[in-house]
Amino acid sequence: MNKRMPQWTPLSWRKRPAAQQPVYDDLRALTAVLDELRRFPPLVFRGEIEALKHHLADAGRGQGVILHGGNCAERFIDCEPGCIANQLKVLLQMSVILTHGARQPVIRIGRIAGQYAKPRSSPVEVVNGVEVPSYRGDNVHDIAASAAARRPDPQRLLQGYYRAAMTLNYVRAMIDGGFADLHHPYNWNLHSIERTREWPEYRETVEHILDAIHFMESFGGVQPSTLGRVDFYVSHEGLLLGYEEALTRRDETNGRYYNLGAHMLWIGNRTRAVDGAHVEYFRGIANPIGVKLDAQCGPEELLELLDRLNPANEPGRITLITRMGHGGVEQALPPLVRAVQKQRRVVTWCCDPMHGNTRAARGCKTRAFKDVLAEVRESFHVHARLGSHLAGVQFELTGDDVTECTGGAVRLTRKDLARNYQSYCDPRLNCAQSLEMAFLITKLLKARMARAQDTSGAGRCRR
Question: Are 56 and 320 in contact, with CB atoms under 8 Å apart?
Fold first, then answer.
């Protein structure tokens, strides 16, 4: 491993260059807000964080599947029951399909209850012919296209905390109240699913699950109360470092620092500089963390990041989330996988097939479903060929019937984009496209299991 790093504190990131941070006019007002956040109760508990880390370590060893999904950027106006319930519905639907098909536990992680800030590639954008500061998320400023609305307001950090708390409280209440009960999976249906060609297959899957549940219950092997409980974790990109610092607390039982604003946080592609403020902050928290890697990331940079972020090689600590773009995986991914293998680094691999496949069309951003699927398929194949293991996927998706990504079973075209384009930032898969993606990933998982069984069988014959 590399040289010994200086002692870490929750404030040590301030000595490093911090990318993608808003510039506030009133620093005293910002300080007052951050001081208030430090006094607020945590949103999650240390035990939940450690449980997720354990599950991620299992997934990295091939004993689980990661389903990580949600909004590109949550909006304050979406903190209402319908939007939250639809988000949970689509993730539950996908997890049922994956669990049934892969015969493995699914680790459900939502990009929810805190994903209120976004990095941007340019400091300005043109809206209706007017140049304004780029929208950086509701935690920073308003979406309205004016200089006044786009001025960073520290009070919005408090609004983000309140909405994250309300969202998380509602998600937990729904799960505790039986919303995820497998006895009633049709309660999760959204009307758009029933119009897709995948609906008969999904219905058949649900019937198989119900039949298995009733069979096991008839023998007393399953307690009905356990079927309404699922583990659900929340995550967001740890972008606004002042906010993240304010939610970082030292645990008295083990002396470690945890960000108690989410179970998992990730470092974005634009903020992963090895000597930057984000890597410095993340190296000191005990949460499981993700690192986004694009096609420009080389083996040397990756190993430096792992030296900084996980010098103890702790299982479940690091999830590497690749976002290469379809067609770029075969060239960019193998050197990274080989470097990790050669150095015996313990990581969990995940694929983000969304961000490398963004295109402009009709004045807005979109993604083609076929490109998203292609990157998932290419990533599975590269890991399989190299004897590595792709543990899961991260999608930007919504339970609403939006028209932001083209293609899929609903056959959206570029002409459909304006019909219901709701995202403030990046395009998301709608519910029907998400469901179709779950079926397609299940087929890839089944093929991987079949290859593993063939290899195991051949090995027994040779012995």
Answer: no
SS3 call for 232: strand
Alpha helices per DSSP H over 5-79: 27-39, 46-60
Extract the runs of DSSP E, i.e. beta strands, from 371-461. 390-396, 405-406
Phi, psi of 71 (to 5 degrees): -70, 150
Answer for the pair 319, 289: CB distance below 8 angstroms, yes or no.
yes
Phi-psi region of 128 (alpha: psi -120 to 50; beta: other; left: phi over 0): left
CB count, 10 Å around CB of 456? Answer: 10
Report the distance separating Cα 203 and Cα 277, nearest Å: 48
- Half-sphere CA count of 278, side-chain side, radius 13 A: 24
In sequence order, the 6+-apart residues with CB closer than 8 A to the CB of 58 are: 64, 105, 316
Cα–Cα distance for residue pair 88/239, rounded to 1 Å: 24
DSSP annotation string for 131-184: EEEPP--TTT--SSSSTTTTS--THHHHHHHHHHHHHHHHHHHHHHTTTT-TT-
Tens digits of pLDDT across the chain (463 residues): 446 788 999 999 999 999 999 999 999 999 999 999 999 999 999 999 999 999 999 999 999 999 999 999 999 999 999 999 999 999 998 998 898 888 889 999 999 999 999 999 899 999 988 999 999 999 999 999 999 999 999 999 999 999 999 999 999 999 988 887 776 666 666 666 777 777 787 788 778 877 877 776 676 655 555 555 789 999 999 999 999 999 999 999 999 999 999 999 999 999 999 999 999 999 999 999 999 999 999 999 999 999 999 999 999 999 999 999 999 999 999 999 999 999 999 999 999 999 999 998 878 899 999 999 999 999 999 999 999 999 999 999 998 889 999 999 888 999 999 999 999 989 999 988 998 899 899 989 988 888 877 766 655 544 4
Is the Cα torsion angle 94, 95, 100, 106 positive or negative in sign?
positive
| CA separation for the pair 372, 282 (Å, rounded) | 29
247 near 37, Cβ under 8 Å?
A: yes
Whole-structure pTM over 0.90, yes or no?
Answer: yes
Which alpha helices (DSSP H) does 322-430 contain, by range?
A: 329-342, 369-385
Crossing angle for the helix pair 199-218 and 431-462, nearest 10 degrees? 60
